[in-house]
Inverse folding.
């Protein structure tokens, strides 16, 4: 099995096999800072929760989805709580038929099982059966349904400062007017630009940021009441109600489901 601590030289060249699969299993959080490499990368998990970030946005990823990042795109990743997952590194020439932009794809049983099989390959040239299975994996990455970014980030530097501050502290309850003053932008411009650059109103975007952080905290075994208070909800019942309306289940049931396989589908509406 390819180890999760692969030699960086292996993923910074397209020489060698068309794809390399690294498997990871740990009981504690694992993270990687901003970096890039010349191979495309598919992140996925069999158990636990991942957060993946690129310049355009951030995803919180359960076992039902995987994230594709094309070659040479700066990205970062962090797991939350116990985690068992994989990364598929695809040689740059083979990425021409794959999505050109970072995206979330819905995991199929075929992709999951083929990837698990590929994780058992020794590093080195692929034999004929392995080449055929590699082709199946590439076909699945290229044809499975994609989902939009979980939390798009604005491009305007003033709005980006606000977004980054809210990601760092989702419980910050300053009003739109207070944030506009802090970022030296008019209320009207902040409101209009947030919609045009992210597709969401400022209020809805902040709500999504809080819910994404709630998913991470659930994976880290934080009690539901503690999550509600930490994220600035007036009462735990307010948080539970919003969570249920968004994900279709209570936070406690969600935690139970993503700790197993397959996890519940995450679709923040």
């Amino acid at each position: 099995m390819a180890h999760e601590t692969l030699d960086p030289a292996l993923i910074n060249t397209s020489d060698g096999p068309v794809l390399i699969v690294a498997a990871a299993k740990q009981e504690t959080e694992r993270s990687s800072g901003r970096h890039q490499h010349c191979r495309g990368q598919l992140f996925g998990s069999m158990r636990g929760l991942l957060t993946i970030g690129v310049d355009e946005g951030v995803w919180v990823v359960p076992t039902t989805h995987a994230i594709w990042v094309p070659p040479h795109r700066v990205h970062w990743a962090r797991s939350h709580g116990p985690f068992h997952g994989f990364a598929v590194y695809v040689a740059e020439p083979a990425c021409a038929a794959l999505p050109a932009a970072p995206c979330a794809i819905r995991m199929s049983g075929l992709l999951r099982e083929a990837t698990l099989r590929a994780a058992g390959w020794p590093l080195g040239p692929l034999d004929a059966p392995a080449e055929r299975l590699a082709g199946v994996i590439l076909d699945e990455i290229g044809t499975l349904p994609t989902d939009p970014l979980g939390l798009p980030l604005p491009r305007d530097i003033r709005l980006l400062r606000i977004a980054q501050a809210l990601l760092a502290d989702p419980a910050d309850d300053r009003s739109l007017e207070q944030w506009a003053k802090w970022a030296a932008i008019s209320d009207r411009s902040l409101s209009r630009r947030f919609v045009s650059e992210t597709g969401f109103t400022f209020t809805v975007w902040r709500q999504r940021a809080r819910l994404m952080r709630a998913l991470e905290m659930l994976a880290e075994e934080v009690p539901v009441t503690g999550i509600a208070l930490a994220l600035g909800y007036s009462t735990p019942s307010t948080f539970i109600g919003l969570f249920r309306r968004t994900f279709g289940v209570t936070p406690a049931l969600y935690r139970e489901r993503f700790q197993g396989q397959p996890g519940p589908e995450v679709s923040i509406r």
